[in-house]
Amino acid sequence: MSSTPSSHLHLAVALDGTGWHPASWREPVARPRDLFTAGYWADLVAEAERGLLDFVTFEDGLGLQSSRYGELDGRTDQVRGRLDAVLIASRIAPLTRHIGLVPTVIATHTEPFHISKAIATLDYVSTGRAGLRVQISARPHEADHFGRRAFPPIDLAELQSPAGQERLTGHFDEAADYVEVVRRLWDSWEDDAEIRDVATGRFVDRDKLHYIDFEGTHFSVKGPSITPRPPQGQPLVTSLAHQAVPYRLVARQADVGYVTPHDTDHARAIVAEIRAEQEAAGRAGELVHIFGDLVVFLDDEQAAAEDRRTRLDALAGEPYTSDARVFAGTPAQLADLLQALAAEGLSGFRLRPAVAGHDLPAITRGLVPELQRRGVFRTAYEADTLRGLLGLTRPASRYAAATTA
Amino acid sequence: MSKPLKQIHLAAHFPGVNNTTVWSDPKAGSHIEFSSFVHFAQTAERAKFDFLFLAEGLRLREQGGKIYDLDVVGRPDTFTVLAALAAVTEYLGLTGTINSTFNEPYEVARQFASLDHLSGGRSAWNVVTSWDAFTGENFRRGGFLPQEERYSRAKEFLATTQELFDSWHGDEIIADRATGAFLRDAKAGSFVHTGRHFDIHGQFNVPRSPQGRPVVFQAGDSDEGREFAASDADAIFSRYATLEGGRAFYSDVKSRLAKYGRRHDELLILPAASFVLADTDEEAGELAREVRRQQVSGATAIKHLEFVWNRDLSSYDPEGPLPGIDPDVSDDHISKGRAQVRMYRDPLATAREWRELAAANNWSIRDLVIETGNRQNFIGSPSTVARTINEYVQADASDGFILVPHITPTGLDDFADKVVPLLQEQGVFRSDYEGPTLRHHLGLDLPRSRPRSSGGTPTDDLRGEERAAS
Known about the structure:
The complex is a heterodimer of chains A (405) and B (470).
Chain A: E1 10-15, H1 38-50, E2 55-58, H2 85-92, E3 100-106, H3 112-125, E4 131-135, H4 140-143, H5 156-159, H6 162-187, E5 194-197, E6 202-204, E7 214-215, E8 220-221, E9 236-240, H7 244-253, E10 256-259, H8 264-280, E11 289-298, H9 302-316, E12 325-329, H10 331-342, E13 348-353, H11 356-373, H12 386-389, H13 398-404
Parallel strand pairs in A: 1-2, 1-13, 2-3, 3-4, 4-9, 9-10, 10-11, 11-12, 11-13
Antiparallel strand pairs in A: 5-6, 7-8
Helix pairs in contact in A: 1-11, 3-6, 6-7, 7-8, 10-11
Chain B: E1 9-13, H1 34-46, E2 51-54, E3 62-63, E4 66-67, H2 78-85, E5 93-99, H3 105-118, E6 123-128, H4 133-136, H5 150-165, E7 173-176, E8 181-183, E9 190-194, E10 199-203, E11 215-218, H6 223-232, E12 235-238, H7 243-255, E13 268-273, E14 275-277, H8 281-295, H9 298-309, E15 335-336, H10 347-361, H11 365-372, E16 378-380, H12 382-394, E17 400-403, H13 413-425, H14 438-442, H15 462-469
Parallel strand pairs in B: 1-2, 1-17, 2-5, 5-6, 6-11, 11-12, 12-13, 13-17, 14-16
Antiparallel strand pairs in B: 3-4, 3-15, 7-8, 9-10
């Protein structure tokens, strides 16, 4: 299996509703009434695959979308409601062949046992193209949907206070445990556990099935998984991070971290911080990709992109702001920016199309050819699995290693 | 005029992790690879079956403290594989077994509503309960639920998810570009549920799906399970596939419907049924015996005896006589994670009876397990099997069958090619799908959403009207 030359960029696209701008659904190319159909998602992912992208991510949440961080906003002028991201990814898997499928999973209220087998199964139905993006929820109204924990009110400002940071640390520690359980369960069947030995009547070699015996603050999980080891061994684990606590999760548990640099200095600082955490976590020798997240308005003329942004802001009634840098310009300008950021240590980007129906095709038909001309993006899929596309080897099960050591 | 013939419902159970599945046959393929599921589902759809059925167990079975290794072990995640199958089928219903103990209503409702959207209205939920601490060891709450509360939780779980499904009425999304209104109502999806097992409130985030709610199956056999089915389920996955046993179960459960204000045809009885087909009845009989021997290896026979004896019998020869020692009747059972051990309510009596049978017939342990085990429900030539199935359904032993082939993934092929055309010729099975949703296939009405709690117009769900008109 060949791998991407290191000078090449990796590209992912983040899919969320009709796009990341809250007024995107009002664009003529948007298909807001199709959001709850399989066909809508199939078309978007087919377009991304046409552009040879590494993977797509699917946003998700355990409550209605909101323009506010910690509570519902009661608005009716933006897209509300969504389908389960793992199931969208699975529904699309048989319709695609190369592109990675990375749904969001919420660690806070769900069961790591269920998610581990769900992503393993996504890996089977996609023959090795599955990943997950792990997210926490500190929102009290989402906790009320489960009724098992009560969280106090929270907002972005409060998150920066010492108490807020402590809360955040608790949620991210739980997420780290969650990913640890998910990963151990993926390894809990050795690759050759199924033997079908007719002579002895044994279907599996049970010495190759392992209890994971995880014990943590929020849960204990015995294992083994009910699903055999997935094709990639370890499907991709990814996470979005904006500050030290989530950077630590990336460093401890992820294969890809999404970060939000606003310029090259910022990118350099973030990369240094994550690499230091990676070393502290004992993973210095492992390949951990750091991808920059950018919201993009992409047109052949810069003015057209800026006009579109202005027009959508007017429809929304307020200027669009984001945790990520918002880019409006041409494919060549975006390629310049990506290369400049990549020089600071980012190995790829997760682009958030402002309007899915417009900016996704602009990425695949405008940006991708531009990057190919510059010799920094693939011209054909070079691997059969998502790990392969990202230059990650297929790891042996940790339990197999323990047995043979 | 004579009574019109009942239409038969047929479904396909993906071969599972019991010894009925013959993995040792050279024809047997993967139980995990998606290509097996695709073949199986597309065969069922080619034969115009109502739906595909997936079972689930949330911990690998153990016997004597070790993972049970003689049957198929391992299966994919139910929701995920059903969503993928929605991409390679167009009409086939997709029924998943999902546990009401180690899940939460908000999440399960999201998953079923999503599956229903992504499949265009083909989802169904076989609600199962469990309570054991053994399975609980894989989940956040451990073995939190006392056995006697499992149906109480299951009932409230189901009721809560239905409140969530009904929290959207189907007309909230207007997406009017001109006015900028995406939602008609900021309170879409609002729910409050306060009960013994769940105390939750907020807004559900999946709009109403094509079927409104998934079709609900129930599989328990206890008195409580039957009441649960009569009050809450659309269909029962039963174990009574014989003529007499089926008729007794059918009339028992159907007679319970009236007290819940439900019609006779609002609950379908669909037993699991195995089958063996060959060109002639005689050949099928021989093949059935052969399959039984494949299903019960010497090692399997010993393990099966251990269910009853509740002891380690590994030192016994499967080709030799039954153990002289009596079963251990203590509570801690040698077998964990399977339901059928509870079938032997009086192990001492069963052991006595089996010893007498073995002595009278000169049977070894393996012979005994083969002879006393369930033989296949339908054995014969295609015409015999088609005729028998039709007789059973017309005699109200069931409304149809959930067929459980013994070979993965090709075990349904002959049934699809040879039996189904005969049923179609007799006019008792559809020759094409008549509607897009599983509710159409099963002849079930679309559920009406509940009236809005305040404001708005009392709803006739739009899709409900379409159904009524079709």
